[in-house]
């Protein structure tokens, strides 16, 4: 084994000196040829990619689609945002190429032939209206709020005001992940069940005493993200394993990626490339290594 490593090192050094000896002309010609090949491959790729699913993945899907189409001008990428479960159902039925799911796939979905392709990691932020004085919640307090045990902010150190519990609709990937992580599936007492991330933010922002949960990358100045167990909802804290509300962003396919069209395979190759990872990081998500 040691001799193989030495041989590999010798070969690498020899190749380095060999390329240097060839001079600038050879290096320039090689780079030119590589550039021309890449441009040809980019120009040759054509087709369509259709996606449907998670509203939490809207920012990622749109940003990646725009960047991908700039690189591959002969490809059209479309996306609909209908909820995670609907996206998985659509890809299983053959209605779309990719089903976006902001939760891990269920065993029965995998058993039906849907493949879980994790493209990023997202945090779920717990948000309150800007006037709320509660800045930190324990896991137990959060569970009690959503199960209806704690009904007034004064019970957990806040102002004397009723807690308005806001969440997503049944079938939402965000709701599924939130309830599963807290182990409160089918036990939540909601005042409002809304059908999109944007609707949750708008409701919480406009409702005194409201609390809701949204994708980390969707937070804006209209709401306040509370700390959980003293930890802020940031990508850095999720990477470090300090923030407990996080979930996968899945781009599901019917069958393995290798079984998909050339265009769809190129899409996943792009997301795994340095260029694609920059897009993922730019929308506030955690890159999967």
Describe the model.
The longest helix is centred in the first third of the chain and has 21 residues, at 2-22. The two termini are 28 Å apart. The chain has 289 residues and is an alpha/beta fold. It has helices at residues 2-22, 24-44, 58-71, 84-93, 107-111, 139-147, 173-182, 197-206, 235-239, 262-272, 274-282; strands at residues 47-53, 75-81, 98-101, 114-115, 118-128, 136-137, 164-168, 192-194, 210-215, 224-225, 227-228, 246-254, 286-287. Mean pLDDT is 87; it is low at 1-40. Helix 10 (262-272) packs across helix 11 (274-282). The protein has 3 domains: 2-42; 43-120 and 250-287, Periplasmic binding protein-like II (D-Maltodextrin-Binding Protein, domain 2, 3-Layer(aba) Sandwich); 122-246, D-Maltodextrin-Binding Protein, domain 2.
């Amino acid at each position: 084994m040691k001799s193989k490593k030495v041989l590999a090192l010798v070969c690498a050094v020899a190749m380095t000196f060999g390329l240097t000896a060839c001079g600038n002309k050879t290096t320039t010609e090689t780079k030119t040829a590589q550039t021309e090949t890449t441009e040809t491959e980019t120009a040759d790729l054509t087709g369509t990619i259709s996606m449907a699913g998670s509203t939490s993945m809207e920012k990622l899907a749109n940003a990646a689609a725009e960047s991908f189409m700039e690189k591959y001008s002969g490809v059209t990428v479309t996306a609909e945002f209908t909820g995670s479960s609907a996206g998985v159902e659509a890809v299983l039925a053959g209605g779309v190429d990719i089903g976006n799911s902001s939760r891990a796939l269920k065993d029965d979905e995998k058993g039906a032939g849907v493949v879980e392709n994790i493209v990023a990691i997202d945090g779920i932020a717990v948000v309150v209206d800007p006037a709320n004085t509660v800045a930190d919640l324990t896991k137990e307090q959060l569970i009690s709020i959503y199960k209806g045990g704690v009904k007034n902010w004064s019970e957990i150190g806040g102002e004397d005001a009723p807690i308005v519990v806001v969440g997503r609709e049944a079938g939402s990937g965000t709701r599924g992940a939130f309830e599963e992580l807290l182990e409160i599936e089918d036990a939540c007492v909601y005042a409002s069940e809304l059908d999109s991330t944007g609707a949750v933010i708008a409701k919480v922002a406009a409702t005194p005493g409201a609390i809701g949960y949204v994708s980390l990358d969707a937070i804006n100045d209209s709401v306040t993200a509370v700390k959980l167990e003293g930890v802020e909802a940031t990508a850095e804290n999720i990477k470090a394993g300090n923030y407990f509300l996080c979930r996968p962003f899945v781009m599901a396919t019917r069958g393995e990626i290798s079984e998909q069209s050339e265009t769809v395979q190129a899409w996943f190759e792009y997301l795994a490339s340095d260029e694609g990872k920059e897009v993922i990081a730019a929308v506030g998500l955690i890159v999967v290594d």
